[in-house]
Write a structure and sequence with these properties.
CATH superfamily of one domain in chain B: P-loop containing nucleotide triphosphate hydrolases
Oligomer: heterodimer
Order of helices and strands of chain A: HHHHHHHHHHHH
Distance between the termini of chain B: 29 Å
Order of helices and strands of chain B: EEEHEEHEHHHEHEHEEHEHEEHEH
Structural class of chain A: mainly alpha
Strand content of chain B: 25-35%
Number of domains of chain A: 1
Helix content of chain B: 25-40%
Largest sheet of chain B: 6 strands, mixed
Number of strands of chain A: 0
CATH architecture of one domain in chain B: 3-Layer(aba) Sandwich
Largest sheet of chain A: none
Strand order of the largest sheet of chain B: 6-7-8-3-9-10
Distance between the termini of chain A: 38 Å
Helix content of chain A: over 70%
CATH class of one domain in chain B: Alpha Beta
Number of helices of chain A: 12
Number of helices of chain B: 11
């Protein structure tokens, strides 16, 4: 890479960074975000009460609920803020002024994505803190004898592996939302993203579809969908960490690599579509 | 080198459920704007003014033709460093303050923090929202957003400024401020290209104008040349007898009693001499003979009527009949 080319690359990254910081600033002031985060934290905190009414399963319930709440509310944040990245900006025409500045369309797409991932990271961190706080309090309140009966310590660091994969999954969902928002309206983009999230969790079933249908064509079609649609099931290791089963680092690395590759493909597709779009 | 140049610039939008038909929003626009001009791009709603601006900003891509700004292809990043753009009824980010928005935009141009701050402070004061700089934009009225829009368009001291309906949504004071700001830009030697359907605004600030009707440029030139077309003469006479009023008045385009014993006759440009002679021979006194110049409004309305007449007469016109998607 020549010096001027590398200088241009750095300048280009700087613009992406400016857009990302702006998205983060806008997002963290969004009331929708506050509502979602507060509700998620309340749910995580409320899991403590839920744990009290279950005999001997209290820690598992709290861990399960905390991880599930992070995943679900992370999804809502990714969808509702993610589709706003492009759809609302086009709909409200705020994009006109921005694209008249020295910002290329690929820089715009990448900056928007990076900004929302940053927002998600902060929110997931808040939810993780709430989760560990509840478990920490619970552990502190219980006697050592009672704690000895747990499969894993209440504040088991292994849960961070599950949170990490939830975060990678949310990055993927954000990229899906971003892609749909470059090609359709906000409402349609939200519906399609949630639809794909649901399908993504049952994607593995499509692989062996020929075992339940006789038609080879239907089986081939299902196999095709299996390869194209995101497979989200591998990102869900909640059950394993709650029951203190090992989650190998190799598995985490491979699943992350799959997520990152899928995100890259989606961002590329978003950039291609967005770069050709007319803003009528 | 022209500041803005287009050659046969054309934009078609697909219309209909199957998107098979096309609506030609801009038809073969060839235009050249010299540096330092304030160019008024005029036309009724749906004429293609905003479409042209979006093509120049590359918010939409041309179907065919060429658009250049400062000798470079419109839409290139280096051109965007040198231009400013105010969209029609601008809308910005709800959760940012006016100051944050301008600082963000200034950052995109790569200015150092102190320079950014200096530019933003100056501009916010210039457009009259200095005291509201720390208010969230969602609390801003339409007129205030328009001022923010003007400020953001000037954040990089642009050589060429594109303003889409800059007076829209402003009260008389705001309109005057924007008018003065445009005149200031002209004094600084900047090129201003603004679209408007408010003719009074255009008449008072633009040195050149183009009239766009139904996507076609029907006239372009210096404003004083466009307005040089004489509409006729106004002949003011005193003591015009009743007989003469009937005889001469019936040949005039219009006769109006403007005071006791005093009449104004509107006559065609070539008939003024004959009318003067006839009035004197009838015993009346000629008080004044005033040329009637066409206003920009006259010109604009005539151009629209001509264009619509041509469209009606043209049986092989392939243009779609749907209203255009953008103005």
């Amino acid at each position: 890479m020549t010096e001027s080319a590398s200088g241009g690359f750095v300048a280009s990254l700087r613009v992406v960074g400016h857009v990302a910081v702006h998205v983060f600033k806008e997002s963290v002031r969004d009331r929708i975000l506050y509502n979602l985060v507060i509700f998620a934290v309340l749910l995580i905190a409320g899991s403590y009460l839920m744990g009290q009414i279950t005999a001997g399963q209290d820690v598992k319930i709290i861990k399960d609920l905390g991880l599930a709440a992070t995943s679900l509310f992370g999804l809502f944040i990714a969808v509702f803020l993610g589709i706003g990245l492009v759809s609302k900006e086009v709909q409200r025409r705020s994009i006109y002024s921005l694209l008249a500045k020295p910002v290329t369309r690929p820089q715009f797409v990448l900056g928007k994505y990076a900004g929302l991932v940053l927002t998600l990271a902060v929110n997931v961190a808040v939810m993780i803190a709430a989760h560990y706080s509840v478990l920490g309090v619970m552990s502190w309140l219980e006697s050592p004898e009672f704690r000895a009966g747990w499969e894993a310590p209440a504040t088991d660091p292994a849960m961070l592996k599950a949170f990490f994969l939830i975060f990678v999954q949310l990055m993927l969902i954000t990229a899906v939302a971003l892609f749909f928002s470059t090609v359709s309206s906000a409402a349609l983009a939200a519906a399609l993203t949630i639809g794909l999230y649901i399908v993504g969790h049952f994607n593995a079933d499509l692989r062996n579809f020929e075992t339940v249908v006789d038609s080879p064509a239907a089986a081939a079609l299902a196999r095709g969908f299996y390869y194209v649609l995101p497979n989200l099931a591998p990102f869900d290791v909640k059950t394993a960490v709650v029951h203190a089963q090992p989650v190998p680092w190799g598995y985490i690395a491979l699943t992350t690599a799959y997520g990152v590759a899928y995100v890259a493909a989606l961002l590329l597709a978003s950039i291609v579509v967005f770069s050709r779009r007319d803003f009528k | 080198m022209p500041a803005i140049r287009t050659e046969a610039l054309t934009k078609e939008f697909p219309v209909g459920f199957w998107r098979k038909r096309v609506h030609r929003a801009l038809d073969q626009l060839t235009l050249s704007v010299e540096p330092g001009e304030v160019f008024g791009f005029l036309g009724p709603n749906g004429a293609g003014k905003t479409t042209t601006l979006k093509l120049l900003l590359q918010l939409i891509f041309p179907t065919s033709g060429v658009a250049e700004i400062l000798g470079r292809p419109a839409g290139s990043v280096d051109v965007r460093h040198r231009i400013g753009y105010l969209p029609e009824t601008p809308y910005f980010y709800d959760n940012l303050t006016a100051e944050e928005l301008l600082l963000y935009f200034a950052k995109l141009f790569g200015y150092a923090p102190a320079d950014r701050r200096r530019r933003v402070d100056r501009l916010l004061d210039e457009v009259g929202i200095g005291s509201e700089r720390r208010q969230m934009l969602r609390r801003f009225s339409k007129g205030m957003l328009q001022r923010v829009g003007v400020a953001q368009a000037l954040v990089n001291d642009p050589e060429v400024v594109f303003l889409d309906e800059p007076m829209s949504g402003l009260d008389p004071i705001g309109r005057r401020q924007i008018r003065e700001l445009i005149l200031d830009l002209r004094r600084q030697g900047r090129t201003v290209f603004f679209s408007s359907h408010i003719l009074a605004d255009a008449e008072s600030i633009c040195s050149q104008a183009g009239v766009l009707v139904a996507g076609r440029l029907v006239s372009v030139g210096r404003l004083d040349e466009i307005l040089a077309v004489e509409r006729g003469w106004e002949l003011v006479v005193a003591d015009l007898s009743e007989v003469a009023q009937r005889a001469i008045g019936s040949r005039a385009r219009r006769i109006t009693q403007i005071a006791l014993g005093r009449h104004a006759l509107e006559v065609a440009p070539t008939e003024s001499d004959q009318f003067v002679r006839d009035c004197i021979e009838s015993g009346a006194h000629v008080v004044a003979l005033n040329p009637l110049h066409a206003t920009l409004e006259d010109f604009f309305l005539r151009a629209v009527q001509d264009e619509r007449g041509n469209e009606g007469a043209s049986s092989d016109d392939s243009r779609a009949t749907e209203p255009p998607p953008t103005s």
